[in-house]
Specification:
The chain has seven helices and six strands, in the order H-E-E-E-H-H-H-H-H-E-H-E-E. By secondary structure, the chain is α+β, with helices and mostly antiparallel strands. The chain has two domains: 100 residues, Orthogonal Bundle (hpI Integrase, Chain A), CATH 1.10.443; 37 residues. A three-stranded antiparallel β-sheet has the order 1-2-3, with no helix packed on it. Strand 1 and strand 2 form a beta hairpin. The protein is globular. 13% of the residues are buried.
């Protein structure tokens, strides 16, 4: 889910999940956070729709098993790959990752602050661990018309510069 805490997901009720409009309203945020609304993918909506509705919420009964299963999987993978750093990954690590990726995509701290439900920008700054993405590999593309440029932007390319009337774009691999 969109940067929600594991406890927030656990406490979701069916009344907060709008399957018709593919939307989740998080009314009970943790740590004095702000309520927020998420658009869900078709895949997540279909998965939620397949869960029996007789429980209080979709994740109430699986919560205790979730931690145990995640811990066991993490331990197995760390041993198999001989990488003890994998043992440091928690559910909260994914929240940090989501915040960092959203900031990288948007360069907008206020957007990330709203996504995480923070009331104070100082908390958001902790989450958006600024990583030097400049060393990453990129796909590059060029456009000579506004229509070509619009298509590139719609597919995730970002504008870099114009040289000899040719617009240059890039997208991380």
């Amino acid at each position: 889910m969109h940067a929600c805490m594991i406890g927030e997901a656990k406490n979701l009720t069916w009344t907060e999940i709008d399957l018709e409009n593919s939307r989740i309203t998080l009314n009970n945020p943790e740590k004095n956070g702000k309520p927020r609304m998420f658009k869900t993918s078709q895949k997540l909506t279909a998965m939620l729709n397949a869960i029996p509705k007789e429980k209080d919420g979709p994740f109430k009964s699986c919560y205790s098993n979730l931690y145990r299963d995640f811990h066991n999987q993490r331990k197995t993978i760390a041993a198999k790959l001989q990488n003890p750093r994998l043992l440091r990954i928690t559910f909260h690590t994914f929240r940090h990752w989501k915040a960092t990726m959203e900031y990288h995509k948007t360069k907008d701290f206020l957007h990330v602050m709203q996504l995480l439900g923070h009331r104070n920008i100082k908390n958001t700054l902790i989450y958006t661990q600024l990583i030097d993405f400049e060393s990453d590999d990129y796909h590059s593309a060029t456009a000579q018309t506004i229509e070509e440029a619009a298509k590139l932007i719609e597919t995730g390319f970002e504008y870099v510069c114009t040289h000899d009337n040719i617009m240059l774009f890039r997208k991380r691999k």
